[in-house]
Amino acid sequence: MSAFPPAIFLMGPTAAGKTDLAIELTEVLPCELISVDSALIYRGMDIGTAKPSKTLLETYPHRLIDILDPSQRYSAADFRTDALQAMAEITARGKIPLLVGGTMLYFKALLEGLADMPAADAQVRAQLAIEAATLGWQALHDELACVDPVSAARIHPNDPQRLVRALEVYRVSGMSMTAHRAQQSAQSAQAGGSGRQQLPYTVANLAIAPVDRKVLHDRIALRFGKMLDEGFVEEVVALRSRGDLHSNLPSIRAVGYRQVWDYLDGGLTRDQMQERGIIATRQLAKRQFTWLRSWENLHWLDSLACDNLPRALKYLGSVSILS
Description:
Shape: globular
Helix content: 40-55%
CATH topology of the largest domain: Rossmann fold
CATH class of the largest domain: Alpha Beta
Structural class: alpha/beta
């Protein structure tokens, strides 16, 4: 038995039913919820993020939802700091932290820690934004493939935030992110460490998704159409009307928001916007599956199964999460 307190990771692609299962678990276990979602952190971005309703959040509070204004930036390191604090507070009350979401980088940062990287450089980021606007994101991805092929293999050309960060690190320091990580791992090994910052919890890893990928694609399309019916475009209009937001901010680059923003700029028809929003969401789900396929000790559940709660509880008992 580990001396570490328990924690549960509930992961999965977008539109897989993670929130529903998390709520079911909190009904039968002494859990408190922590959101692991890079879009749900923003206030005023409710419809396009499929944020749980205010009523549901009042009944089942989620930490790390609505913690930032869309003009602000938030990193994986910021998430790790905030999540560790939330987990410690939950554990101190004798409860189990249940972390639910689909931002896999956040889960990985929490589990393994982060290598020290050069600080952000506003001038370099501005230059990269100009290059992206003139040459396109694929050109930047091609550059990354030359200087850091390992990072390029895991960063999609349609993931501008991570793409910019990887190139920024290289241009600021002359070393790739991969080289930084390898150097720090070597230094840690020489010092007798493992190269990882161990998370001080016994973690049970759950993932939920439909076995049939077509089912997920259908869910994504239906949900995007429902978002539009519920006022997604009007939500983005309200964000634009503030005057201090722009399309290069991480919040506005979120899947769905950037397509609606382009539509309001006149670059897309409404049908094109909807089609591209659905495609972008499917691409996000594909990237999430890629992360999950390499996740160690992961227990999968089928979104369409009617007995996921008992299956999840059986698994949690088998890994000694439940006393």
